[in-house]
Design goal:
This protein has about 900 residues and is α/β, with parallel strands linked by helices. α26 (about 815-820) runs antiparallel to α27 (about 825-845).
Length: about 900
């Protein structure tokens, strides 16, 4: 947790004032939260909380007493929201202690209570992007090794989205950590003494796991706020009944949790936490969906990051580098969130993919209906988050009116959807609840232009309540009444400057200047003396004041009652609204895909159950858009042909840096993801056999904080690929082995390619600078060499960015360095050194004797004799004795001399 523990500044409670005793009692109840203590128009913080808040919020630190023993700082209550969000983003918990009675009516100290505890996972951040989710996660971990079971529950309170999953077996904990890294929750709940423990320096680790296993849990430490709860909260006897009670069910089987106890316990503990932090009735959290990762194309956190699906690779970079930005032509916030979810979880269900593609094809081919559909969503606001605010009682009159504005768009949207004929459009149109009754209810209850706050009055439309209309008439006639009293008193007293006024402190009064006080009648009662005037009241004015104030108070009570009743009616229909919002989101997503297809001329992929992956004339969607927007050129299309069943399953790609190898790899993955989301693709033609998982080993970075070098990170990611990939996976490996010594890296890359070819059979794109690997094309029947092309000119090289068959014969690394701006003398010297090394290597191969032979791996990978490579491949080198190794070297030397 980011909050700081209570220190020795805590005073003796007996010596405190009544208000500070209230503060101490509230702080003792919520010791791990910053306590915002309402005192008049300010939220005050004291002691350690004040020191922390002043530092984090850059507030002036003062003191409550002259001795400065009680540090203090505060923020105005009407401006507190911004300060609260800043603290929550930093990972702090905040307890709000409100005044529960009117200070003017309190006979002793004002009663105060903690009304809500805000945490990063339970607060609604108004700055949250429409496409973003704010997940609170809860995990329940039991067992170890092959008996491990991990339950995960995720809740986005702003929308009511509630889902759960479960992992079992020896890889359960690694899968859990990976899922947390993919979903990126802002707060994590776990049992305080369970299998997931807080370790040194605030890190999280699994109990009784080795250091090596802990390294695999790097994503755990990316969660800023980690909240340990008492173990009993995660017990089956508590969590499961709590979950059943919330959803009012007798069995959890209907929620999809039958046989998934750890997921159910994690879900129940999460709901307990929501209740404990006073989050309201949670009526909008009316459904829980259990999901299996294997039901969708699996993308681990590394691949999501490397492919820049929803966030840039490096923090702070332009979001224009992401696939989400490129595909986001959605009209509604719900559609944007569904697009993001679809990119993170593309479908593996062929029927589902085909249904989406059929719908996209129909809309793409009908310009009129497609544009009408998109225009019909222009006025649709974020229905899910608006209902979340209603459920949490944080929605004001204008938010409720915004709900009505959105509901008003639904009949037109439903009518246009009905005009489309494919099965998916028909499914979305059938039973589309336009919620017209709720729109009518809001429209007849709320005024056309209500104030921001319910307390300001004037929220309820005239004609809703007869008593309210009468009281309003009385209040509105007050100005005329005051004018009549003022005119009458002027005539009676002869004081022409006499004024009748009102303020919140003194109520209604008559103000007379000092010069006219001698003319004041005897029945005037003095209320206040000013420098230049005196203020009085009269029996008539007192009676009028009581009447007006009573009317205003009563009007407020009636408006609050009517608004609360309206809120309850909306919450009773929360399930209907969520279902309608889901349909709107899918309509938006499909029309977005259709719009992109028509706008850019994208084609429908042929998706099937085979081992094929073929695209012709394909382009990288993100790079192409950036080139078009910047006007710097056009994207050069390329093609791919892979087949895990009959054709080449591995493409070995060589060529210079900057030539486009990494782009080619990423392009293949992005087109697969788009196709399995149901989106058309930027290509002339694409055939895709369903992919079950995409693996990426692209780029290189170290993790110093966790003691992992660049090479260690690379090997860890490669190990995950080789241990879990299947023949239906897509593997992208870019420059593997470059983080260590040349021959070590080359040997590992060689062995990895062979393993992928002989044991896994996954469709693989392997980009490398090790030209020696191209010899594998003669040894491995399903490996094919490709190269990215360049053109050599007198002034240097020109990157053509096209891919063709065959191996590259040069790396052009020095030319790329020249283009990067290295000094000319460095480039010249590099060329000299390169020639020396090439000459020395050739001489060593040609002249070495058995006693002065080159190392075995040099002979093994030198592309001078394919027969040598074949000869080495026949031998198990690890089993050779030193003498046998020397004899083998002698044989190889004879081959070279021959």
């Amino acid at each position: 947790m980011a909050t700081e523990p209570t220190s020795s500044l805590s005073p003796d409670t007996a010596a405190l004032s009544p208000a500070m005793r209230q503060y101490r009692a509230a702080k003792d109840a919520y010791p791990d939260a910053l306590l915002f203590f309402r005192m008049g128009d300010f939220y005050e913080l004291f002691y350690e909380d004040a020191i922390t808040a002043s530092r984090e919020l850059q507030l002036t630190l003062t003191a409550r007493d002259k001795a400065k023993s009680v540090p203090m700082c505060g923020v105005p209550y009407h401006a507190a929201e911004g300060y609260l969000q800043r603290l929550l983003r930093k990972g702090y918990r905040v307890a709000i202690c409100e005044q529960m009675e009117d200070p003017r009516l309190a006979k002793t100290v004002v009663r105060r209570e903690v009304t809500r505890v805000l945490t990063p996972g339970t607060a609604i951040d108004p700055s949250l992007g429409a496409e973003q989710s704010n997940y609170l996660a809860s995990v329940h971990v039991v067992g170890s090794g092959s008996a491990s079971a991990c339950g995960l529950a995720l809740l986005d309170l702003s929308t009511g989205e509630f889902r759960a999953t479960e992992f079992t077996g020896s890889t359960a904990k690694a899968q859990l950590a990976d899922e947390l890294g993919r979903m990126r929750p802002v707060e994590l709940l776990f049992a305080s003494t369970g299998s997931l423990l807080a370790g040194d320096r605030g890190s999280l680790r699994f109990a009784q796991e080795s250091k090596a296993d802990d390294e695999e849990q790097a994503w755990l430490d990316g969660i800023r706020t980690r909240t340990p709860l008492d173990d009993w909260i995660f017990s089956a006897d508590h969590a499961l009944p709590f979950l059943r009670n919330h959803f009012r069910v007798h069995s959890l089987d209907g929620l999809g949790l039958g046989g998934h106890e750890t997921a159910a316990i994690a879900s129940g503990a999460l709901l307990h936490y929501m209740q404990a932090t006073k989050q309201g009735g949670l009526e909008h959290v009316d459904a829980l969906r259990f999901y299996e990762r294997s039901s969708c194309l699996e993308l681990d956190a590394v691949s999501v990051r490397n492919l820049e699906l929803v966030e840039p690779l490096f923090s702070g970079e332009n979001v224009q580098t992401t696939l989400f930005y490129t595909l986001d032509a959605c009209c509604t916030p719900m559609g944007k969130r569904l697009l993001r979810a679809a990119l993170l979880r593309p479908s593996c269900d062929l029927a589902e993919i085909e249904a989406r593609l059929n719908a996209v094809a129909e809309a793409a081919g009908n310009l009129r209906l497609r544009e009408e559909l998109r225009r019909a969503m222009d006025g649709v606001l974020d229905l899910e988050r608006l209902m979340g605010r209603v459920a949490l009682d944080s929605a004001g009159p204008r938010e409720v009116l915004a709900v009505a504005a959105t509901l008003a768009c639904l009949p037109g949207l439903a009518k246009i959807t009905t005009a489309l004929e494919s099965a998916r459009w028909k499914m979305l149109a059938d039973g589309f609840d336009t919620l017209e009754d709720l729109h009518h209810l809001i429209a007849k209850t709320i005024a056309d232009e209500p104030p921001v706050s319910l307390s300001d009055g004037g929220v309820i439309r005239a004609g809703v309540d007869a008593e309210l209309d009468e009281l309003r008439q009385l209040s509105h006639s007050g100005r005329q009444a005051l004018a009549a009293i003022e005119e009458r008193e002027r005539e009676r007293t002869g004081i022409t400057s006499l004024k009748v006024r009102f303020n919140n402190v003194f109520g209604y009064y008559i103000e007379v200047t000092k010069a006219n006080t001698k003319a004041v009648p005897a029945d005037y009662e003095r209320k206040q003396t000013l420098v230049n005037a005196e203020r009085f009241t009269t029996p008539e004015l007192k009676e009028y004041e009581t009447k007006i104030l009573t009317a205003q108070e009563r009007s407020g009570e009636i408006e609050r009652r009517i608004f609360a009743h309206l809120r309850r009616q909306l919450l009773d229909a929360a399930g209907r609204m969520r279902e309608t919002a889901r349909r709107v989101a899918e309509i938006d997503l499909l029309s977005c895909f259709a719009h992109l297809a028509a706008l850019h001329g994208w084609v429908r992929p042929a998706v099937e159950k085979s081992g094929a992956l073929e695209f012709i004339g394909a382009r990288h969607p993100v790079v192409e858009r950036r080139l078009v927007e910047s006007g710097t050129g056009r994207f050069v299309p390329n093609s791919v042909h892979l087949d895990a069943d009959v054709g080449p399953s591995i493409l070995l790609i060589t060529g210079p840096n900057m030539g486009g190898k990494s782009t080619y790899l990423r392009q293949a993955a992005l087109l697969v993801i788009m196709a399995q989301c149901g989106c058309f693709v930027p290509a002339e033609q694409m055939q895709l056999g369903l992919i079950d998982r995409i693996y990426t080993r692209i780029g290189a970075s170290d993790n110093v904080a966790r003691g992992r070098s660049t090479f260690m990170v690379e090997m860890t990611e490669t190990a995950a690929i080789l241990n879990t990939a299947t023949n239906r996976s897509l593997v992208l490996l870019d420059e593997m082995g470059r983080g260590t010594a040349t021959y070590d890296g080359l040997s590992l890359a060689w062995a990895t390619v062979e393993y992928l070819h002989n044991h896994i059979g996954a469709r693989t794109l392997f980009a490398t600078h090790y030209h020696e690997l191209t010899l594998l094309a003669e040894k491995l029947e399903r490996l094919k060499n490709l190269r990215v092309t360049v053109k050599e000119t007198a002034g240097g090289i020109v990157f053509l960015h096209s891919v063709e068959s065959g191996p590259a014969n040069k790396s052009y690394g020095i030319e790329v360095a020249r283009l990067a701006g290295l000094p000319a003398n460095v480039i010249a010297r590099a060329r000299e050194v390169l020639k020396l090394h090439e000459r020395a290597e050739n001489q060593q191969v040609q002249e070495s004797s058995p006693e002065r032979a080159a190392p075995l791996q040099m002979t093994m990978f030198t592309p001078l004799s394919q027969r040598i490579v074949d000869r080495v491949a026949e031998v198990d080198i690890d089993d050779l004795t030193p003498r046998e190794a020397l004899n083998l070297l002698a044989e190889l030397q004879k081959e070279l001399k021959g």
